[in-house]
Design brief:
six-stranded antiparallel β-sheet; three-stranded antiparallel β-sheet
């Protein structure tokens, strides 16, 4: 069942993990409805300053990047205490899923399709690299996470970059210290793997890795673990694509190898130069690589899914929202649905509901001290009047002051258990190592 979320109606869960959710939502009413994507972080991560700052910076940076090849961010807001980003919805799949779908159906990815996707991704990157703020100051954006998972391909033939969450940019609230690595190890440049200062040519290298892998159907830098992968990236030994996969035109070898040069100075100076090289190659060799050809390939590859999603009841079936409560937030099985403190304490374990006896001991001691002071004061007044020879009008009866034996303090009691909420285990999802992707036989469109 769809779930209300402020001005939105949540329709489907697209992705979820230990840090946040990505949800398909409907915005507006009647003739003004449109589909959008809601990306939101889990409530406990709002208290994580580093993660929340990264989430906010992603929205702030991407909202300034208005380009056809960058997925647009429309809004950054809060609803019911939940911070979210509203993104443009792209009906399609990311490049990694397209690889898997093509392998599962034994369908090769045509060279023209590969060239169109990489060229359009390069166009989006070049715009981001050269973007300026409203005062004309350069933003100096470096994506730092260019990978197949962050390149969306629409059924309409559109190509869009996503996820600028770890992007480096001028004016960013959070800065990465030297030696701290952000991004995916198999898609890092050598200078990124070394923790050095980055510029746009690092993204060119990462996009070159994606190009090499799409042409050959193999992984370029993939070790048994992150450390082994990092060593492969630093060594930067790149086989010639046409020697790895015979269907790759030899003319693409120098273009790919130039993008993957170890030294930044030996690469293309910017993403625009890489794009131009790919466009010129497709034009000179008569390769069908237009957006229309890309759209036709996507419709053929995802024919069944497209037909299913065209059904009016599609968004009411298989929503995946069963684990969301009325407020739209995921919760643990042991977490109370009410935030009322009285109910929470009443339902808590006995060891948590019992209050500490220490405040009572302190209260009793205070009362005893006040009584003792009062007795001492009366005795002092009586003694002073006798010394002065003054006889009171109504003499008080003689009072023998009582001797008060001090009561030894009770032995210290052990500290009571913490009355706070039980420690919440990390909500992160453990990384599961995926099996290697099957080799894709790439067909060249004549």
């Amino acid at each position: 069942m769809p779930i209300p979320f402020g001005r939105y109606t949540l329709l489907k869960k697209l992705a979820a993990g230990g840090m946040g959710q990505v949800l398909l939502a409907r915005k507006g009413e009647g003739d003004f409805e449109k589909l959008v994507v809601i990306k939101r972080i889990l409530p406990h991560l709002v208290e994580d300053e580093e993660f929340f700052t990264m989430f906010r910076d992603e929205a702030r940076i991407t909202m300034r990047l208005d380009h056809p090849n960058i997925a647009r961010i429309n809004e950054f807001g809060t609803e019911g205490g939940v911070h979210f980003i509203e993104l443009e919805y792209v009906a399609g799949a990311d490049l990694r899923r397209i690889e898997k779908q093509a392998a599962a159906t034994d369908t090769g990815i045509p060279i023209g399709v590969v060239l169109r996707v990489i060229a359009d991704a390069a166009a989006g990157l070049d715009f981001a690299h050269k973007a300026r703020d409203t005062r004309g100051a350069a933003l100096n954006v470096v994506h730092r996470d260019v990978s197949p998972q962050n390149i969306l391909v629409g059924f309409d033939g559109s190509v869009k970059l996503i996820d600028f969450g770890v992007a480096k940019a001028a004016g960013r609230s959070q800065h990465t210290a030297t030696g701290i690595l952000k991004g995916k190890f198999p898609y890092m440049s050598p200078e990124q793997a070394d923790g050095l200062e980055l510029d746009a040519r690092s993204d060119v290298f990462a996009l070159g890795i994606v190009l090499w892998e799409q042409l050959t159907g193999r992984r370029l830098f993939k070790g048994d673990n992150d450390l082994a992968t990092q060593r492969l990236v630093r060594a930067c030994e790149v086989p010639v694509p046409s020697q790895v996969e015979s269907s790759v035109p030899a003319g693409l070898d120098p273009i790919t190898l130039k993008a993957l040069a170890r030294k930044p100075s030996d690469r293309y100076p910017d993403a625009a130069a890489l794009r131009m090289a790919l466009e010129n190659f497709a034009l000179a060799n008569g390769i069908a690589s237009s957006s229309a050809h890309l759209s036709a390939f996507m419709h053929e590859l995802y024919a069944e899914r497209i037909a299913k999603e065209s059904s009016p009841t599609f968004y009411e079936e298989d929503t995946g929202l069963t684990d969301l409560d009325a407020g739209g937030l995921p919760r643990r099985a042991d977490q109370p649905t009410s935030i009322d403190r009285g109910k929470a304490l009443a339902s808590a374990p006995v060891t948590q509901a019992i209050t500490s006896p220490a405040p009572k001991r302190r209260g009793g001691a205070l009362v005893g001290a006040l009584v003792a002071l009062a007795l001492v004061g009366c005795a002092g007044w009586w003694w002073s009047t006798r010394q002065a020879g003054v006889t009171p009008a109504v003499p008080p009866p003689p009072v023998q002051p009582a001797v008060i034996e001090p009561t030894p303090p009770p032995p210290p009691e052990p500290e009571p258990p913490d009355a706070g909420a039980p420690e919440v285990p990390d909500a992160g999802t453990p990384e599961v190592k995926k099996p290697p992707r099957p080799v894709i036989n790439i067909k060249t469109t004549r």
